[in-house]
Amino acid sequence: MSDSSATQPPPIVLYHYPASPYAKRLVWYMQLRGIPYVQCIQPMVMPRPDLTRLGIKYRRIPLLSIGRDVYLDTRLILQKLEAIYPNLPILGAAPGTEQKALERLLEAKVIDGGIFTSAALLLPTDLPAVRDPAFQKDRADYRNGVRMTKELAAALRPEALAEIKAVAALLETTLLADGRDWLLKTSQPSLADIEAVWPLHWLSILPGALPADQVSAKQFPLVFAWIARFQATVSAAAKSRGEKPKVVTGEEAHATITQSAFHEAGGGGVDASEPIVQSHGLRKGQVVELWPTDSGSSHKDVGKLVSLGSGEVVIETGAGVRLHAPRHGFRFHAAGAGGANL
Ligand SMILES: N[C@@H](CCC(=O)N[C@@H](CS)C(=O)NCC(=O)O)C(=O)O
């Protein structure tokens, strides 16, 4: 639970670039709930000095700060956003319900189950951004050295398309089959809609990504109508909020963050009953390295361990900000002997 939400809502900064489909998950969420934030636009390729300035090495986008805490990974960020602005209706299903299970399973299907990876393989290779040699080189680093050539993309495409067709068919013939507007029969889009819609929405707006004779409104009318309804609803929500979120510079974002109080000042402490604490002998204040396990793993963050529980690990960087990562999809250990310095 946040320490600052009871008083003045802390400032929120979204670090992203507009073409990021992962970032859209957060933008849509905040638009739908009416959560105010500012945005600090990042280059699509490394380096990202705005993040280095905060002592952050994580190379993926988006990141979101709330007060002086910086959160990694949209899965953790969405959970944190659900807990702030308690006066605004939340988008997630009620804890302990079947709907909550569906929402979380959709998240796992799309992110861990390879739907996003398949969607990324369908990006047309002639998109200017994708053809850019700097982008190619950058993403090879992200994929642990493997470069995505035109030939490799063509070879992988049929399988990726089969995965996307399968998920569209699943939605068409199950949750959407009875003609409901939103996946969990809510009156407005819920978090479950966000969890499922984003890769399909991304592909549907990229000309050439989806062959019309395979995945289109012809084969999947309910899915494509749902995507369009979702887009119309978030656009209307954004319009009704008036001004677009302000764009701030890296310096401004840094000042906002470092001059703020910690959003979760108390922290959870290091839970001694966690198996990793017992087996690795980890303790509060110890310098640890932290990295994502799926991609971009060579970018390891270093900081003092602030708290560690079953859902989250928090370290404090040399720049004095607290970096929060979910346990799922991240790994950490004590900074080695040859060691990382703060
Ligand atoms: N699991 C992460 C994945 C984020 C991710 O892969 N984002 C893409 C952009 S859409 C990325 O970081 N690409 C490499 C980069 O921009 O450096 C999350 O949920 O936030």
Automatic annotation (TrEMBL):
<dbReference type="InterPro" id="IPR036282">
    <property type="entry name" value="Glutathione-S-Trfase_C_sf"/>
</dbReference>
<dbReference type="Pfam" id="PF25907">
    <property type="entry name" value="DUF7962"/>
</dbReference>
<feature type="domain" description="GST C-terminal">
    <location>
        <begin position="104"/>
        <end position="248"/>
    </location>
</feature>
<dbReference type="Pfam" id="PF13417">
    <property type="entry name" value="GST_N_3"/>
</dbReference>
<protein>
    <recommendedName>
        <fullName>GST C-terminal domain-containing protein</fullName>
    </recommendedName>
</protein>
<dbReference type="InterPro" id="IPR058268">
    <property type="entry name" value="DUF7962"/>
</dbReference>
<dbReference type="InterPro" id="IPR036249">
    <property type="entry name" value="Thioredoxin-like_sf"/>
</dbReference>
<dbReference type="InterPro" id="IPR010987">
    <property type="entry name" value="Glutathione-S-Trfase_C-like"/>
</dbReference>
<dbReference type="InterPro" id="IPR004045">
    <property type="entry name" value="Glutathione_S-Trfase_N"/>
</dbReference>
